């Protein structure tokens, strides 16, 4: 993963990166995953975990947090379950102290006030008090998972803000960053034009606004 490209994407909004993904024909917009607090932002490479129901065999939400490097975004695929959590305040405390990039859950967390208190960014389908212990089990780590209908592979770049979560395949990050930068520059020129009093329709036409996100022909 290009450090320069990651830095470019980290400074962008998910809306701009979403348009770049559309331009390149990459399905990367996670549906239904939102921040616990509107000020939360997260960006970084994904560490992936897939959960399954534990049945009668017992289960665990997994011990993995101690070995993750700073900047990692923990991506937890709990199949969208709303009745059993896979993240709580102890994990939040450790993740915050380790300066992880954030946590993204296709499912729910609990102890949401702790995340807000520590300003640790969590993105999920909501919060619920019921533990996942003895309800879910770790099926695999560092494998392909699904978050909001989007495939996430280990090391894929995740960007999260108030509008949601986008996933950039690690092998496409340079390309996505380049296209996103072009889109951001065009939209900045449009904003500058209307602030000077120019007509919006003229400014949009000049910058090709309505085709900024249109998929490129191969």
Keywords:
218 residues; alpha/beta; Glucose Oxidase, domain 1; ten-stranded mixed beta sheet; two-stranded antiparallel sheet; 12 strands; 28% strand
Q: Unreliable segments (pLDDT under 50, ≥5 consecutive)?
A: none
% residues in beta strands: 25-35%
How many structural domains in the coordinates?
Answer: 2
State the end-to-end distance: 24 Å
Helix content: 25-40%
What is the count of β-strands?
Answer: 12
Q: What is the mean pLDDT? A: 94
SS-based class: alpha/beta
CA-atom Rg in angstroms: 19 Å
CATH topology of the largest domain: Glucose Oxidase, domain 1
Please explain how this structure is put together.
It is a single chain. This protein is 30% helix and 28% strand. Strands 1, 2, 3, 4, 5, 6, 7, 8, 11 and 12 form a ten-stranded mixed β-sheet that branches. With 218 residues, it is an alpha/beta fold. It folds into two domains: 18-26 and 169-218, no CATH class; 27-165, Glucose Oxidase, domain 1.
């Amino acid at each position: 993963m290009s450090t320069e490209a990651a830095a470019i994407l980290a400074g962008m909004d998910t809306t701009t990166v979403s348009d770049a993904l559309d331009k390149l024909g990459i399905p990367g917009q996670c549906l239904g995953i939102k921040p616990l607090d509107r000020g939360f932002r997260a960006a970084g490479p994904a560490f992936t975990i897939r959960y399954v129901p534990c049945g009668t065999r017992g289960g665990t939400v997994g011990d993995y947090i101690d070995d993750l490097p700073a900047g990692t975004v923990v991506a937890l695929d709990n199949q969208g379950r709303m009745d059993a959590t896979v993240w709580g305040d102890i994990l939040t405390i450790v993740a915050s102290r380790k300066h992880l990039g954030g946590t993204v859950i296709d499912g729910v967390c609990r102890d949401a006030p702790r995340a807000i208190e520590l300003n640790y960014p969590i993105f999920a389908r909501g919060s619920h008090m019921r533990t996942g212990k003895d309800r879910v089990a770790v099926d695999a780590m560092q494998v392909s998972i699904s978050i909001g209908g989007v495939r996430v592979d280990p090391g894929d770049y995740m960007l999260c803000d108030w509008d949601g979560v986008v996933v950039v395949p690690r092998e496409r990050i340079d390309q996505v960053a380049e296209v996103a930068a072009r889109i951001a520059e065009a939209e900045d020129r449009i904003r500058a034009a209307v602030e000077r009093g120019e007509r919006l329709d003229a400014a949009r036409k000049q910058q090709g606004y309505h085709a900024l996100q249109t998929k490129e022909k191969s």
